[in-house]
Amino acid sequence: MKKAGITIKDLHLSFGPTEVLKGVNLDIKPGEFFAFLGPSGSGKSTLLRSIAGFGPRPKGSILIGGKDVVALDPWKRNVGMVFQSYALWPHMSVRDNVAFGLRERRIPAADIATKVQEGLELVGLAHLADRMPNQLSGGQQQRVALARTVVTEPEVLLLDEPLSNLDASLRVQMRRELLRLQRKLGLTTIFVTHDQEEANTTSDRMAVLDGGVIQQIGTPQELYDTPANLFVANFLGTANILEGKVETEGGQARFRTTTGDTLALPEGKTASGTNIVLRPQNITLQRDPGANALAGQVLHREFLGGQIRYLIKAGGAEIVVDQSHRAGRDWFEPGMAVHLLANTDSAVVL
């Protein structure tokens, strides 16, 4: 199966007076599993549909395998798309649904039979070839939709929130299946989702979008550990953000909050900024004062099984702190005075 890279250059798209894509530039490597991540209205699905050729023609360039396809009809782009709704023909069997695109391409019947069998074996549904879509579970229907797409041997596979109609446990199973299938085929794949967990667990790299603009591109770990701005920090996991400024005195950089509390920054972390981002797992609660600790008060506590989540008033903000749960370990009670020991090695100044 062919693997094609995708290059997007200065892409703009408007619906009437509303600009929904604002100068998007992006390079996706051949064989990469890439995610578009963002909230509703961020432009991620519009960008995906522009690659597929659906909707108004955007301004700019979309190169697939080095060929600009922005002016081509969808069926001339050699891309396969799996929709959120699966879009199976209800009156056709599983076998006929998978064969549909091949028949439209006037492929010989013997070749169609072989490709359909291979496609159904690939997704583990060969034994259900004669069933109708309404006799399948949601996960099985999604796998039929995948098989129908990959048997046409597209250069690029586009997935538009394909797991959003499944329950939580099935979503976990299906995202593993998606990744297994993608790795086996080596197919360049773009996965649109608003769910950071789905993007984190499947993608090689991702682009976070907001307001039709790419905010940051990188691996899931890069975006989580070193967000480029407050939007990315907040969107990827829980972020505690303290306002203030960086000060340097005697060669030591510190972040001073608006309430006058200070946190020492490690050597080399002297970037100027008015916000410091601390992740919940990088803060430790203790009863006694200590170096690099903020005084606070417990507002709320939640038991989450493997961890305890606290909401603490400190440093002029409400701070979320996650601590591992161990049997017999004392909990901090609401109203209790505590001190927050911050690991500023993992902090980001923005």
TrEMBL record:
The keyword ATP-binding applies. Keywords: ATP-binding, Nucleotide-binding, Transport. One of its GO terms (cellular component) is ATP-binding cassette (ABC) transporter complex. Residues 6-236 form the ABC transporter domain. One of its GO terms (molecular function) is ABC-type transporter activity. The keyword Transport applies. Belongs to the ABC transporter superfamily. This is Iron(III) transport system ATP-binding protein. The lineage of its organism: Bacteria, Pseudomonadati, Pseudomonadota, Alphaproteobacteria, Rhodobacterales.
